[in-house]
Amino acid sequence: MQELGIFVKTFFANISIMLLLMYLASLVYKYLIYKLTPGWKEALFVVLVILGGWASMQYGFRFSSGTLFDLRFMTIIIAPMFVRHQASIIVIGAGVALARLTFGLNEAAVVGSINMLVMSAACYFVVREAARRRFGFYKKMVTVIFSVNTINVIFIALFGVIPMEHYLWRIAPGSYILSVILSFMFVLILREFIMEANRKQELLLYNERLEEQHRLAEKRTAELQAAKIELERKNELVMLASRYKSEFLANMSHEVRTPLNSMLVLAQLLQDNSDGNLSEGEVRYASIIHSSGEDLLKLISDVLDMSKIEAGHMEVNREEFSVSELLQHFKYTFGPVALKKNINLTVKREFGVPEFLYTDVQRVRQILNNMLSNAVKFTAFGSIQLVVYKAVEVEEAGSGEVRPGDWLAFSVQDTGIGVPKDKHSLIFEAFQQLDGSTSRTYGGTGLGLSISKQFAELLGGVIGLESEKGRGSRFTLYLPWKEAAAV
């Protein structure tokens, strides 16, 4: 019993020493080596464990001047909990074996060193097999604890300097049970220690990431604020430039229109030749001047309309108007031109369309005027029809989007040159026509349809197009029926 009590004191002294070393190691890790690479960390751990084995032997129980009883084999048991490479277990066993020889070179020292090598080799193979079979942590450590403690007892009984009978009957039973229990306790303590250290490390890393994200967020916020200020400054410049452009175009259109109208009146007077004092050639020249002036006046009006739409200054003035009067206006306006080209022009209002409608008649007139002008321009023979009717769905030109509902439709259909399907979107862009040859043959700026489309959107409607090359065209202005028919 006295020997067992001494063994218990030795066990607890050894455990205390190892726990103290582990605590000191945690402080060193926390403040000095936590940023090292995994390889360096493992090398330092191996050195620390060998030092712990030496300290265990330093305070172990001495049977005689050369015989020691201690817990040096605990270094083998705890090694699998920390090392990344299984070969480090053999290195630790060899290191502790050499440390045993520093306490005196005798038979007990040699046996003790060989015992450490045998236990480390056994632990190495147990860990390899546990990894191959994918053991969990606790299953692996239970296997290691029983294997190392059993081999230690068997080796000391067979090769130790203590008589086998005395060791097996008086020392081994108590020391084996106590060693296993303390091994489990030490492993559990270290397990909790490791988990707590990992939690602290994860918390530290999490805080560092939060601080980094906070710094990035502050940096991005500052960048966004600077970008916002820059965008506001540029927006002010754009608005200022747009206002200057609108004012310039408005002033220029007024300044240009005044003398241009005078030129048109004078050219018309010369073209009429009321006094009959101009030659036929001079009258023709006056006619060219008058025609070119009207084209220039129309171009100025189109550019001004485009500028107002882009600047958002175009206003909608809805009013009640007569459909019959509108159709009669177009018949009187384009009838003579169509008759001159031998084209049959018809206008009609289908059943269901009320006599009076409510919308911006000036914009509607301008859209239909562009459509009829194009129809007369691009039709060499055949007919042109202007029809007002009620539609139940529309298909927007270019996009192909179908919109159901009730719509008021103004349709202009001709038998002219037509528009290829792949050009349906192109002709609604500013300054665009079918191709260069068309522009040279028929003239025009390519602004009419672009302005018409934007006017239609301004009124809440769309423009539809049905056309094929060589088979004529059908342009249709669709307006919401509920608003247009609400007189």
UniProtKB/TrEMBL annotation:
Q: Which organism is it from?
A: Paenibacillus nasutitermitis
Query: What does the UniProt keyword field contain?
Result: ATP-binding, Coiled coil, Kinase, Membrane, Nucleotide-binding, Phosphoprotein, Transferase, Transmembrane, Transmembrane helix, Two-component regulatory system
Q: What is this protein called?
A: Circadian input-output histidine kinase CikA
- Sequence intervals crossing the membrane: 12-31, 43-61, 108-127, 142-162, 168-190
Task: Report the EC code(s) recorded for this entry.
Answer: 2.7.13.3
GO molecular function ontology, one term from the record = ATP binding
Q: Where is the Histidine kinase domain?
A: 251-483
Q: Which residues form a coiled coil?
A: 200-237
